[in-house]
């Protein structure tokens, strides 16, 4: 087959989908772990430490992700941190999304009733045990639907890495329609469909959890 | 760092202005469009509901960049719209899907008795919706709408992809010229924080004021 959907073009695009999914999965794992730690710090009011973390989280949350990507890729090398496009994207996405996850986890922790903490403490558990065995599992369960919608945003935002020439889905579609203007419309339809399928299945998953948990 | 600002203040302020302009147009446009689609999603007629849901699900699940590039590359080849409008139209469509979701949540949490009471007083569905239910839904949705407005400001940086001459675009121009991306991006970051912080301050105040009215 020739034209927009020649075998080589399709393979080229699918490799881009692979990069998009790869960046997304790695960033989701890192931001989930880092965000949970930050969320717990925000929830437990550690003197001075929590205030510092709060300031950092608020600052990063209120900046455009694109700015953070550019900063990571173009400005960090001035400090001696050289990252290629892939690791710069993963780094920027993880930092940004971790602050988003932190807020969600903190909200989840706050939604667990104070009676749970009091009950656990009065049965003789210490603070760490209470958090780990009683509060955190309930909080995580409640955080699943908002976390999934955050991760949908993450998948969509990987397209911004086009700006630092990461060969992901969006970038590769631009390369293909750069060859021939006739390919523009088919390419936009294709990548919109691919992003839609990935994200819509995630949002169905979120809805399923929502129904089961409430 | 100060000298970057003193040397490029005109460029930076131009970009700052374009970012604010695009955000304000995006806010008004997406609020209007989002309200329409929230109402469609909740409409009594099944076909209207399907149209509303299809629109919202479509624009929520594809990246803003894809929408913006579509307008910049495909649409602008037949209609002359520049980078600014491609980006702003993309912003409006994308954000309105999220606003529709927030409003739908707000309207859904208005007590069903409000609609029933209005209808039994002789108002039509449209009158009851626009005069009784929608205003209350808006109030309940303010916190989540505020979040969307902050996202809108941040997302306006998409204009830099399509030569929209916004703050992010100017930052790239300046750092390309002075070869000091580190300090340039920090200055631009502070300016973005200035906008997003003011938006969240306004939203907090609205929340407090309107929250009190609801309780009263």
- Helical/strand content category of chain A: mainly alpha
Distance between the termini of chain A: 50 Å
Number of E-type strands of chain A:
0
Sheet of most strands of chain B: none
Most extensive protein-chain contact, per-chain counts? A-B, 35 and 37 residues
- Helix segment tally of chain A: 8
Number of helices of chain B: 8
Strand count of chain B: 0
Give the proportion of residues in helices of chain A: over 70%
Overall domain count of chain A: 1
The CATH class of chain A is identified as Mainly Alpha
What coarse outline of chain B follows from CA principal-axis ratios? elongated
Order of SSEs of chain B: HHHHHHHH
Give unreliable regions of chain A as ranges: none
How would you portray this structure in words?
The complex is a heterodimer of chains A (214) and B (216). Chain A has a single domain, classed as MetI-like (MetI-like fold). In chain A, 79% of the residues lie in helices and 0% in strands. Chain A contains eight helices and no strands. Chain B has a single domain, classed as MetI-like (MetI-like fold). Chain B has helices at 2-41, 46-60, 64-74, 83-108, 112-120, 125-155, 167-178, 181-215. In chain B, helix 1 packs across helix 8 (181-215) and helix 4 (83-108) packs across helix 6. The model of chain B has no long low-confidence stretch (mean pLDDT 91). Classes of the chains: A mainly alpha (214), B mainly alpha (216). The A-B interface holds A 59, 62-67, 70-71, 74-75, 78-79, 152, 156-160, 162-163, 170, 174, 177, 181, 184-185, 188, 191-192, 195-196, 199-200, 203 and B 57-58, 60-66, 69-70, 73-74, 77, 150, 154-158, 160-161, 168, 171-172, 175, 180-182, 185, 188-189, 192-193, 196-197, 200.
């Amino acid at each position: 087959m020739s034209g927009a959907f020649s075998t080589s073009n399709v393979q080229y695009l699918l490799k881009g989908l692979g990069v998009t999914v790869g960046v997304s999965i790695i960033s989701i794992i890192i931001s989930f772990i880092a965000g949970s730690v930050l969320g717990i710090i925000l929830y437990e009011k550690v003197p001075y430490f929590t205030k510092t973390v709060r300031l950092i989280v608020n600052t990063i949350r209120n900046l455009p992700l694109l700015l953070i990507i550019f900063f990571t890729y173009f400005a960090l090398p001035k400090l001696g941190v050289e990252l290629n496009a892939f690791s710069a994207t993963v780094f920027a996405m993880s930092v940004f999304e971790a602050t988003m996850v932190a807020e969600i986890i903190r909200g989840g922790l706050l939604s667990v009733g104070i009676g749970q903490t009091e009950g656990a403490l009065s049965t003789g558990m210490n603070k760490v045990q209470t958090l780990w065995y009683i509060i955190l599992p309930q909080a995580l369960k409640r955080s699943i639907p908002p976390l999934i919608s955050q991760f949908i945003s993450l998948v969509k935002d990987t397209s911004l890495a086009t700006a630092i020439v990461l060969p992901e889905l969006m970038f590769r579609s631009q390369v293909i329609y750069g060859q021939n203007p006739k390919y523009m419309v088919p390419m936009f339809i294709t990548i919109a469909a691919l992003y839609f399928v990935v994200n819509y299945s995630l949002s169905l998953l979120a809805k399923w959890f929502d129904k089961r948990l409430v | 760092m100060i000298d970057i600002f003193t040397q490029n203040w005109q460029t930076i302020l131009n970009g700052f202005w374009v970012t604010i302009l695009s955000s304000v147009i995006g806010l008004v446009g997406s609020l209007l469009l989002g309200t329409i689609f929230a109402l469609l999603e909740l409409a009594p007629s099944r076909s209207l509901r399907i149209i509303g849901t299809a629109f919202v699900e479509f624009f929520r699940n594809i990246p803003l960049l894809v929408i913006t590039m579509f307008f910049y590359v495909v649409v602008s080849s037949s209609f002359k719209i520049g980078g600014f409008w491609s980006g702003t139209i993309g912003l409006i469509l994308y954000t309105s899907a999220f606003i529709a979701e927030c409003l739908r949540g707000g309207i859904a949490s208005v007590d069903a008795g409000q609609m029933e009471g209005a209808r039994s007083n002789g108002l039509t569905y449209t009158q009851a919706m626009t005069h009784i239910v929608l205003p209350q839904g808006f109030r309940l949705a303010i916190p989540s709408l505020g979040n969307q407005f902050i996202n809108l400001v941040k997302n306006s940086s998409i204009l830099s992809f399509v030569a929209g001459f916004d703050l992010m675009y100017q930052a790239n121009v300046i750092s390309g010229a002075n070869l000091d991306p580190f300090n340039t991006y920090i200055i631009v970051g502070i300016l973005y924080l200035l906008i997003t912080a003011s938006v969240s301050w306004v939203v907090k105040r609205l929340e407090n004021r309107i929250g009190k009215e609801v309780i009263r």
